[in-house]
Amino acid sequence: MDNGVDKNSALLVATLASFLTPFMGSSVNIALPSMGKEFAMDAVLLNWVATAYLLAAAVFLVPFGRIADIHGRKKIFAYGIVIFTISSFLSAISTSAAVLIAFRVLQGIGSAMTFGTGVAILTSVFPIGERGKVLGINVAVVYVGLSLGPFLGGFLTQHFGWRSIFLVTVPLGVIIISVIFWKLKGEWAEAQGEKFDFIGSIFYGLTLVAIMYGFSLLPKTSGVWLILMGALGIFSFVKWEMKVKNPVLDIKLFLNNKVFAFSNMAALVHYSATFAISFLLSLYLQYIKGFSPQNAGFVLVSQPVVMAVFSPLAGRLSDRIEPRIVASIGMMLTSLGLFLFTFLEGETPLAFIVASLILVGFGFALFSSPNMNAIMSSVEKRSYGVASGMVGTMRLIGQMLSMGVAMLIFALHIGRVQITSEYYLLFLKGLKVVFIIFATLCFGGIFASLARGKLR
Is residue 108 pLDDT above 50, yes or no? Predict the structure, then answer.
């Protein structure tokens, strides 16, 4: 499986798929007001258009990673792209809010099938010495998707309406499907013949739904109860996985594999501390600074652009230097950038904001691909699908937690009101509290990153 064509086809296919998922997630956010207008949706329903996709992707990532390890990564990856492409087309022709949310769930399932398996295919095809570089390219493309999303999404929505965002991904899906069938030979299924753990997967899914849905209801008591039930679910899930013969998520990976456990923890902390930055600064720039959405987007692009440029470099660096060192330095820079945001005032100069964003972006680039390299190189071949599914899940849970913390602090500081000029001072106060929490969280994460031990 080592000839050039297959390696390049694998890289092309996995990279294009890695672009689609984050692009879809971030471009839809810009189009939400237009969708809300057309289908007369309230704020809660609008939130579900975005969240339904993330939640479905999070619930199915690990189970599909496991199914791919058993039945073949290429097969699951190909089915995933087909489902994603069809559901994108169906989302574009949706006739009501309920129909749109249903197709977004389907799209999330397709995403889960491709996102986990794409990284697993790369890890199967490329040897250890080239892995950091390739995973770096893959991570860079994720950031290109994240940064182009709001930018392209805004442009498409303004000129061609929100449905065009979904339509634009259809040709890309068709290209990926063609490359898989014509160029990508071979199959990877190192856990062939093992049983799939249905009960564990159902436990896992329900637990995630309870926690994430609970977070969206906070600070209501029903939200707290759901989160508590979810926590109880985690306990039952771990107990079940410990005794079943072929678990959907091998808990021993966390117990006996320090590198895997701490790298995943570091990823969770890092995403929890950083994901809400663009959401918070988008509000700050538009409300406090009076920027138009397009200009706010221009300022915010500085972070993902730096991430996309330096990720492949950081990945290559982690092939030569111990990944935990590169990743920990990255985390240190990120927490410094987050700390700088705690000084935001009404008259903070734009240069200070952009410089802080660049610092966070650079820290993120140094952290992300070496961390992914550490995780994927710390497991056996038969667990590649589950491991890459786990990374994706940590990312999605981190993103949800990040938004949850921001929402909770605003609910406590301002209450559930529209942010108008009389609330600007309270908004700034809340903003600072959120950034203090994020900076502290990220600083704590440096120790998880350092504690993972040596890979080589």
Answer: yes
